[in-house]
Design goal:
Bound molecules: FE2/S2 (inorganic) cluster, fe (iii) ion
Largest sheet: 8 strands, antiparallel
Strand content: 25-35%
Radius of gyration: 22 Å
Number of domains: 2
CATH class of the largest domain: Alpha Beta
CATH superfamily of the largest domain: Naphthalene 1,2-dioxygenase Alpha Subunit, Chain A, domain 1
Mean pLDDT: 95
Oligomer: single chain
Length: 328
Amino acid sequence: MLIEHEALHNHWYVVAEAADVSGSPVAVRLLGRDLVVWRSTSGDVVAAPDRCPHREAPLSEGTVEDGCLVCPYHGWKFADEGRCVEVPSSGAGKKVPPAAHLATVLAQERYGLVWLCLGDPVARIPEMAAEHDDAYRRINSGVDVWATSATRMTDNFLDISHFPYVHIGTFGIAQNSDVPKIEMQRLDDDFFGYEYDVEVRNDDESGKEASGQSADVIHRRMSTGFNLPFTVRSTIHYETGLDHLILLCSTPIDDDRSYFTFVIWRNDDFSVPGQEVIVFDRAIGAEDKMMLEKVKGVLPLDQKATVSVQSDKPSVEWRRRLAALLDA
Ligand code: FES
Ligand code: FE
């Protein structure tokens, strides 16, 4: 089982959109563990096992009152940092047993998303410089659940040889099946990947909305890279000067189910509503999802178990480094 590797606990994963954690507790699952996420009195997002220490009721079925998480079974109340502050049956002012406090896990908000780490983080959440650049706006897409492994997703997001097949309904061009030689390189502090040029179809309305161009076939300069374990960044530079950056986040819920979200940063004129601009990206994601949900199980980390060719170089390198991370 992939998710049983302890080393995966020491990395950050997206489990929800920050805007969705407001009035009520939210149930999430990360690496096979059920967790509850809520917003405490301080306004910070807090996460803890979704199990009340009293009689194991799911805390996510409870409520949030004045920033405290309230268990639905006997009303125990948990404040900032998961501190149990009230046991109603003991009467006011009575001491709370120390074991009643929740063992919280690390949580932070970044890029409009809630990221959790079950252990001690050995790496930071990847930095997106555009987040601090006024020329860019950020567009969030919501968090979806895909019935596939995060390994299959990361492998797919690093791969361009499926464009003419899986993405023939959006931007793929059938005759572009030949992938030029790939040189892997350090793209910046957080991403390792490659740069390439690609011609893409641009003949439907949502595609034209995203590219800001009217021609039916357009050129993109792209880079795609990974940040271990399962984050991929794709950057698209159009000849018009428009940059369209995509952060693709895959989170193992279990071995064969994952959260998926993508975040866009664009230096456009902000005139078209964000949710319209990402219609095309959503359609592309749906094509990948449809394909991956047909492929069973985790991608084997033993490279000999599958056949790879020149165009799989990015995935082979990512898998090599992932295997080393899991062994560490
Ligand atoms: Fe939560 Fe009893 S199970 S208060
Ligand atoms: Fe794809």
